[in-house]
Each structure stands twice: as C-alpha cells, then as structure tokens.
Design a protein that fits this description.
The protein contains 12 helices and no strands. By secondary structure, the protein is mainly α.
C-alpha cells in the first residue's frame, strides 16, 4: 500500500470567514525581509487595530503585497464591499504565490506549522465530532457556513494560515537545503505509522479522503504526528513536500 504523494485535505482549502478583531496567538519572531517602509496609508491603522499580529507580520515580511492590500481594503471599505472576503482572498493568493518557499523552510518552522494544523483539526474534532470533522477536513470550513460553528475556529484558522506564511518567509530568508521527498520516504513514513499502531484500514481511509469516514480526522492527526516523530529524516522531507503542495492549492 502507498499513500498518494499529496493529501490536500489536511490544511483548509479556504480560510473563510476571517473575522476582524480576533488575534491569533502565534509567534512571529524572526528575521524580516529588509525593506524600506513608505508613509503609511491612513487606512492602515484600521487594519492594524482589527488584527495587529496578522497585518503587522504582513507589513514586516511581505511589504509590497501588504501595500496592495491596504489600498484595495480602503476602496472595498469605502464602497461597502466584503472586507473579510478581500482579506481572505489576499491571504490565499499570497500563500499560493510563495508555496514553493514552504518546501525549504526549516524543520522547526515546519514542525510549528504541523502543530498548528494538529491544533485546528483537534479543535474541530472535539467540538463538532468525528463526522463533522471528516467533512471539514475534506471540504474546508465552508461546511460550517450558516451554522453556530462558523465562528468557533477562526482564531485557529488564522493561526494556521499565518504559520504557512511564516514558513514561506523562512524559506525566503534562510532556505534549508533538503532533498525532495521520494516514494521511499513515503514508504518509510508509512512503516513508521504502522509501527506506531496504525492499521492498514486506517491508511486506506487516509488515502481515500472520504468525508463520511469518522476516523479520518484522527488518522490525519496521526499522520502529522508521525511526520514529526519519524527518526530518519524521511518524515521531515515528506512534511516539507506535503505542506508546500497543500499551500499551492
């Protein structure tokens, strides 16, 4: 048995909705890209007040993209448009643009991204149950639109996508030399998961990505944990490939 080399449902396919005023508790420490900040747009203060960690990070590390966002957000706000939708689309496009850089982020940064993804998946699993979590994992947070669950996981969603961007920044400023994950690396990871107690049935469910499989979220969490604990380096190479490919979706 072999897993597909890309399992896209582990990370949310969209980061919606993004509420302003909620602050993700993630560490944004590290070297910033050397850029000269211009005179700020007056609307910048509105964004900083709404989500200071997110927009502060973007300004420090992705300045030109942040400037574009501020201008577009000001126009959207003035016209009564969907500001959250604008920010959501901007973040997703930014994630896609720099997805390749995630593959050369440090092991520590990718481990933090894995932890953030585990935290998000665990929260949905505990809060909504196995079937809802499986549906969420495969189809993204849009499955909760119009329900009380829609606002419950926004902090964790925001933290997770910021961790992706932190990994991209890490890959830009201090790229890690790392071989691409091979089929042999995937097999090594599978063997490690089996040694940790995962069944062939669970592995099959992981590959199938069935949103009606109640065991899917637990198996996904086990996958991320196995990536972190695999001792030979194969798990780390798979993790780098996995998160880079998912970020590009």
């Amino acid at each position: 048995m072999s897993l597909p080399r890309t399992l896209t449902a582990a990370v949310t396919k969209s980061c919606r909705p993004l509420l302003f005023g909620l602050c993700a508790s993630v560490s944004l420490a590290g070297a910033a890209l050397a850029q000269q900040a211009p005179v700020p747009n007056p609307f910048e203060a509105e964004l900083m007040q709404a989500a200071p960690e997110l927009f502060g990070f973007l300004k420090t590390n992705f300045l030109s993209e942040f400037q574009d966002l501020v201008v577009n957000a000001q126009m959207t706000h003035a016209s009564g448009g969907d500001l959250s939708g604008l920010v959501q689309g901007h973040l997703l496009q930014l994630r896609k643009s720099y997805a390749a850089k995630v593959a050369v982020a440090s092991d520590a940064t990718l481990a933090a991204l894995g932890d953030a993804t585990i935290s998000l998946t665990n929260a949905v699993l505990e809060g909504e149950g196995e079937l809802a979590c499986a549906n969420y994992s495969v189809n993204g947070p849009a499955v909760f639109d119009g329900t009380p669950a829609a606002a419950k996981y926004e902090d964790l969603l925001l933290a997770q996508i910021v961790h992706v961007l932190v990994a991209a920044r890490d890959g830009i400023t201090a790229p890690t030399a790392r071989q691409d994950a091979s089929d042999a690396d995937w097999q090594t990871l599978i063997d490690h998961m089996i040694a940790l107690g995962m069944s062939n049935e669970a592995l099959a469910g992981l590959a199938q990505q069935d949103p009606t499989n109640p065991a899917l979220c637990g198996t996904m969490i086990s996958l991320f944990q196995a990536m972190a604990s695999e001792p030979t380096g194969a798990g780390a190479r798979v993790r780098a490939q996995f998160f880079s490919q998912v970020a590009a979706l």
